[in-house]
Design brief:
374 residues, Aspartate Aminotransferase, domain 2, seven-stranded mixed beta sheet, four-stranded antiparallel beta sheet, 42% helix, globular, binds pyridoxal-5'-phosphate
């Protein structure tokens, strides 16, 4: 019997056709192999990881964790302990926190909690692609309203796109890939006038000026996502959290989240990093200074326009073909993200803000390929 022609396996293929593929991009190892280089020679600037938090500091924490954990046992009180410490960090009560395996998993959790087939999800374009993916996995229709030319929210159009089926609104602020933080007044208007759930993704908020977490007390329909992958430099451990009012948080924690979704290693490491938050704050300060320097250097290059950033990445537009420049950078061992089109802006690339030695090498290679490539 050909299982793919009829029955359940065919149905999976049909559903898969409708879902978008998330492309994580080239990996360091595979590019190094292709170019005949060592992995350490590859400059990975495509996933907004944080190279400012010292590796030695994080490895020391991991060594301490390894000495303390018994991996034979499921996490016990550690999750509550992390919620308590996080509660103090974001100034909410521990019952308002849901912990998950990265904010990706929390976006999926919120989608599973609030959506069923036939519902609608509203967001903007361009933005983080996981919202669309998670909405579609639930069988919901995904509606994306373009940002205004200055990358701000078109609130009137967003509200006009709400239908009787719209259950959930995703806003990424600061936004990936445009790197700007949205005006809190506009988000507040959405919270007031849209009676579904408003999920605000603050993955990059530590690099920005303000958070919307303090609005949770006023708006019962607000959920905020945060992550340890960006400011804390722990992308490889996979840890994130959502903040909401107690009732919503307890429904998500008790009914929809898996009991042991997060590893003990990740929980214990996060607790130790939060104990030494000064190191993270210093890394954020250095990153912001380097971000200004990188924007300045990019804008000095002929044929480049770099946009302001409230994140740890920079969006910039080229006069030349971004596909070609992206390939040429890759051939020299530099991986950036090829965004291509942002609204009516063609030829956009996105680059992670990295420490000075990496940034200097990136700028040098970029200038070389711009001269070489037509
Ligand atoms: C806007 C945004 N949200 C969430 C994530 C994923 O974060 P996590 O590593 O916590 O799953 C990313 C990762 O790049 C992101 O850009």
């Amino acid at each position: 019997m050909d299982y793919w022609k009829g029955g359940i396996l065919k149905r999976i293929l049909e559903k898969a056709e409708y879902l978008s593929r998330y492309d994580v991009g080239e990996t360091t190892e595979s590019l190094a192999r292709k170019l005949g280089k060592k992995s350490s020679e590859i400059l990975k600037l495509n996933s907004n990881e944080n190279f400012f938090v010292p590796l030695g500091f994080l490895r020391q924490i991991l060594r301490e964790v390894v000495e303390e954990v018994d991996p034979r046992i499921y996490p016990q009180d550690e999750l509550a302990e992390l919620k308590e410490v996080l509660g103090k960090y974001v100034n909410v009560q521990l019952e308002q926190i849901v912990i998950g395996t990265g904010s990706d998993q929390l976006i999926d959790l919120v989608s599973r909690t609030f959506l069923k087939g036939g519902d609608e999800v509203l967001s903007v374009t361009p933005t983080f692609s996981i919202y669309e993916k998670c909405a579609k996995i639930q069988g919901a229709r995904y509606v994306a309203v373009p940002l205004m030319e200055d990358f701000s929210l078109d609130v009137n159009k967003m509200l006009a796109s709400v239908t009787s089926k719209t259950r959930l609104l995703f806003i990424c602020s600061p936004n990936n890939p445009t790197a700007n933080q949205f005006d809190p007044g506009r988000i507040q208007r959405l919270l007031e006038e849209f009676d579904g759930v408003v999920a605000v993704d603050e993955a990059y908020v530590e690099f920005a000026e303000r958070s919307l977490v303090n609005l949770i007390g006023r708006f019962e329909n607000l959920i905020v996502f945060r992550t340890f992958s960006k400011a804390f430099g722990l992308a490889g451990l996979r840890l994130g959290y959502a903040v909401a009012n107690k009732k919503l948080a307890s429904v998500m924690n008790e009914r929809f989240q898996m009991p042991y979704s997060v590893s003990l290693i990740a929980i214990k490491s996060a607790l130790k990093v939060l104990e030494r938050i000064g190191v993270v704050k210093e890394a954020i300060r250095e990153l912001k200074a380097e971000r200004s320097r990188l924007i300045g250097m990019l804008n000095q290059v002929d044929g480049i326009h770099a946009y302001d950033s409230q994140t740890n990445f920079i969006l910039f537009q080229l006069e030349k073909d971004s596909d070609k420049i992206y390939e040429k950078l890759m051939n020299r061992g530099v991986i950036v993200r090829n965004i291509r089109r942002v609204l009516n802006l063609e030829n956009c690339l996105r680059v992670t803000v990295a420490p000075p030695s990496m940034t200097n090498r990136f700028i040098k290679v970029l200038k070389e390929v711009l001269v070489a490539g037509n």
